[in-house]
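Researcher: Sequence recovery benchmark, item below. Answer with residues only.
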């Protein structure tokens, strides 16, 4: 396993991060989740990403139990705040000081840790003054409950505003962005990635295999295999946009490219996002231990220019690049 600095901070993370969105406390039983976490640890993965909203707090609890007994200093534990959990009361969502403070304390209890290495604003909150949000994050850092802060799925203008406010107020700034990024989804490349590079913000990207589509397991003209994300209540809405026969046919044409590189389809997809040097880590989930073991082998892979060109030629018109596709909920959930 290779390691990279997270942005311009001194924090190193494993190139492959283990994420438990949709899987823990929902798609897989806890004993399987523990096996997947153990496989991640065996593969050298030290970075574990979760969020309070995953399985309505259940995923954090499962991860906390799965990591029990591990040396805390050898791990990087990441979680997020924004979406509602529990009864969805009027203050149970967003990035207000109240919600941030209460959510952080609850996450620490579920994760069975005194601090998280990275605390992330899961979306941008248009209803809370950004100054309030950033001061709350800064206070958590001063309290020792959070070491670094980041955000997920923010647009360039939102990031720029936060950087300006943090500088003007003398607050700790974001060091991390968690965007969706894959061969098929490249919307950060136009504005977000250049801005982040210029300001020392590294990416920990999610869905590098496009909800499993880039593994090649979904075939054109055929129903999704049972037991996959496309057939689960929790995951099917996220993968549905990719399940077009013409797109799936293009993905099948990646198989010889992966073979030429000596990689599986999943490894090719994960290695591809790591070719962007501002990507600090790629988050990979798993419903079976062998999936995380396979994905971890993408660490340290350098793809030749002709491989990268062949990927672009193969996927062509199916690549999404419109930065406007990165959006936060316009109004608070209640």
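Model:
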């Amino acid at each position: 396993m290779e390691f990279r600095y997270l942005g311009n901070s001194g924090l190193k993370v494993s190139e492959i991060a283990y994420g438990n969105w949709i899987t823990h406390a929902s798609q897989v039983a806890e004993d399987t989740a523990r096996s997947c976490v153990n496989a991640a640890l065996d593969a050298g993965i030290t970075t574990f990403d979760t969020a309070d909203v995953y399985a309505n707090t259940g995923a954090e609890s499962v991860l906390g139990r799965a990591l029990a007994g591990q040396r805390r200093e050898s791990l990087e534990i990441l979680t997020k705040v924004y979406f509602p959990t529990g009864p969805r009361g009027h203050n149970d969502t967003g990035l207000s000081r109240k919600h941030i403070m209460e959510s952080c304390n609850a996450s620490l209890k579920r994760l069975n840790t005194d601090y998280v290495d990275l605390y992330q604003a899961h979306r941008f909150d248009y209803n809370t003054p950004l100054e309030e949000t950033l001061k709350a994050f800064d206070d958590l850092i001063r309290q020792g409950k959070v070491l670094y802060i980041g955000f997920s799925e923010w647009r360039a203008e939102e990031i720029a505003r936060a950087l300006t406010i943090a500088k003007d107020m003398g607050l700790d700034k974001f060091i991390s962005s968690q965007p969706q990024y894959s061969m098929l989804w490249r919307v950060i490349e136009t504005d977000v990635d250049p801005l982040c590079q210029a300001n020392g913000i590294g990416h920990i990207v999610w869905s590098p295999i496009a909800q499993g589509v880039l593994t090649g397991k979904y075939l054109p003209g055929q129903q999704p295999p049972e037991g996959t994300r496309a057939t689960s209540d929790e995951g099917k809405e996220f993968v549905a946009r990719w399940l077009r026969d013409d797109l799936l046919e293009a993905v099948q044409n990646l198989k010889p490219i992966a073979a030429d590189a000596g990689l599986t389809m999943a490894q090719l997809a994960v290695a591809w996002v790591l070719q962007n040097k501002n990507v600090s880590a790629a988050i990979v989930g798993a419903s079976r231990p062998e999936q995380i073991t396979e994905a971890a082998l993408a660490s340290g892979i350098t793809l030749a220019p002709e491989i990268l060109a062949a990927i672009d030629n193969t996927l062509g018109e199916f690549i999404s690049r419109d930065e406007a596709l990165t959006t936060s909920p316009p109004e608070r959930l209640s």
